[in-house]
Amino acid sequence: xNESGTELQKHAMDTWQVIKNRFGLISLSFILIFxxxxxxxxxxxxxxxxxxxxxxxxxxxxxxxxxxxxxxGLAFTQEYIKTQFETITKPTTLYPVxxxxxxxxxxxxxxxxxxLARLRSNLDTQSMLRSDxxxxxxxxxxxxLAATIANEVAxxxxxxxxxxxxxxxxxxxxxxxxxxxxxxxxRGQAQVRAQEARRKAGIVGxxxxxxxxxxxxxxxxRSEKDSMVISREQALMIADQEILTLQSDIDQVSxxxxxxxxxxxxxxxxxxxxxxxxxxKLQDLKVAREGLVNEGRGxxxxxxxxxxxxxxxxxxxxxxxxxxxxxxxxNRLDAARKKRESLKVYNEDAKQELQNMQALYTxxxxxxDEVTYLExxxxxxxxxxxxxxxxxxxxxxxxxxxxxxxxxxxxxKPNVPLHLALGGVLGLMFGLGLAFFxxxxxxxxxxLDDVERYLGVPVLAVxxxxxxxxxxxxxxxxxxxxxxxxxxxxxxxRRTPEANCLSVVSGGAGEGKSTTMVNLAYVCAQGxxxxxxxxxxxxxxxxxxxxDVSHATGLTNYLTTDIRxxxxxxxxxxxxxxxxxxxxxxxxxxxxxxxxxxxxxxxxVKSRFDLVLIDSPPILxxxxxxxxxxxxxxxxxxVQHRKLPRHMLMRVKQSVENVxxxxxxxxxxxxxxxxxxxxxxxxxxYTYYSPTNSPNGAxxxxxxxRKIKAETTATVLGGSQAVSRLDGDDVF
Length: 732
What we know:
Layout: H1 3-21, H2 23-43, E1 48-56, H3 78-86, H4 91-101, H5 103-106, H6 112-121, E2 123-127, E3 133-140, H7 143-201, E4 203-204, E5 207-208, H8 224-254, H9 258-263, H10 275-295, H11 302-393, E6 399-403, H12 416-441, H13 448-455, E7 459-464, H14 480-493, E8 501-506, H15 513-526, E9 531-535, H16 543-547, H17 555-560, E10 570-571, E11 577-580, H18 589-593, H19 596-608, E12 611-615, H20 624-631, E13 634-640, H21 646-658, E14 663-671, H22 685-688, H23 697-710, E15 724-725
Helix pairs in contact: 2-12, 4-6, 4-7, 7-11, 8-11, 10-11, 13-21, 14-15
């Protein structure tokens, strides 16, 4: 098992241990609280229930003018249902019920506020999670009245909500009616602006004066002037194109030389129609002259000269026609430029006029669109107004009752099984809480860890509860094993073999110190030790009762007189075990124990006996035990389980150490193994020595247990036969 599992198991065992230890307290708390719950349930008045089941309908509270697709069944949030649910218990819902049923008079109450308080105290409303269902329960000693009040509360809620919903809608209708009036005024102003814009733009009906297209809302305005603007723009472009063409023709002709001009005259598109014929004749003359030259005629030949003269004349005609053509092109170019300038000026004026008209048209169109929008809005608002006005007359039910309250024949309160169950659970929880609280507040020693943590010394033995005096029992006794463990641990914790004097102390009376000493002495004597028991408790001596002898003569006699030690030491029936009674009780026991005579006594008995055990009074409150702790070699503390607080236990150890004593260890005494099961590991010898493991089997074991129990308090030897005084010749 891992560490976490072990830790969990340990906590579970600790919890169970607390429950076992405080079982009586838990049972008592359970019984008392359960009985109180039963008594209260019995004396409580019997009340009948009026039960109503209904659903809260989800009604639209606001008027929406434009969203016609929105229905009344909108998915409201759970907060809406919760708000409506809480209004059921509000005074506005309950006061009408009180007045209608005259509850203040019926209940003989001074005011309706008192009636409201009583009504609320008996009214129980519940809402279903993720549902519109609501339950109204009213409890009263009169079954008929309980049903009537429950039904009236449901009806009052519906009436109040109808009134609230109608009031809200009426207020919304008033606001909507005022908005309609305001919109009509705005529409009238928009119509006036539209008429004024129509007059300025010269619009008759829906058409512009002079023709054009329809003035639809949101459309474009078109007119003949628009077409005129387009023509002027085209004329201006044509003029520009003409200027470019003429300038190109002039530049082309100006670049040609006379010969090139004559040669290309036929392709220049000259205005003279004869140029083509002249050019053809010039070409013929060139061919004729070339023929004459080829025939051998020279330049000065009359025929050649005649041909040259004709060619010169034709060339002159061509050059003249070309010059005239260029002059004509230049004139046309100048005219085209003037025309373009005039077109440009006229076009600018037309544009400005068109822009002014367009602004008027736009103003009219905007005003007309505004009128159209306001008229559409008014139509919607009027339609919604009349719908909601009609809806007020047909208000939807705010709730649907599925189950009305009827008089019941059986009281619903008090719920006896539930009250008793709650009383039992509360009693159990209170008992457990009280048990764990007391366990938390309990600072007594509970386990070995507490002893070793706070004292820093080992636990020498764990002695179970109800262990008797061992030397008075006969036969087999497993209780002796605890003292044998104690004897072994003391032996191994001695500093030296000479440290054989052990004082036994406790924090208070009744912790089992004397019984522990007698049983320890008994098992040591059985183990072969010569043991001397000294009863040094000069306040309340008790060791002599375990041997049934008188303590009239003993330690005090030896310390105050010259009597011999042999005269006060008694031989017990147990072999090797000797006893020194306390003697008569002195007035100053601490002074007597803190004497040189006592020191000499301790020194002498240490040399004569193997083990000296000194019984001392409780160390807290008296100084006797501190004196004995200083004289002894070792001190053993006996602690009763769950009795002494931890801080007192620490003070016991501190008291021993303050006088120079040495605490050898602690005996945890009187441990209840039935309630503290964790100590069973330290007392497992009971199981080991169980009768089922003995040779005689189970039957013999049962017989032996009965015998041991019967003889636990029986004495082996009684009176003077049990203990005898030592003769002078006895050797210790």
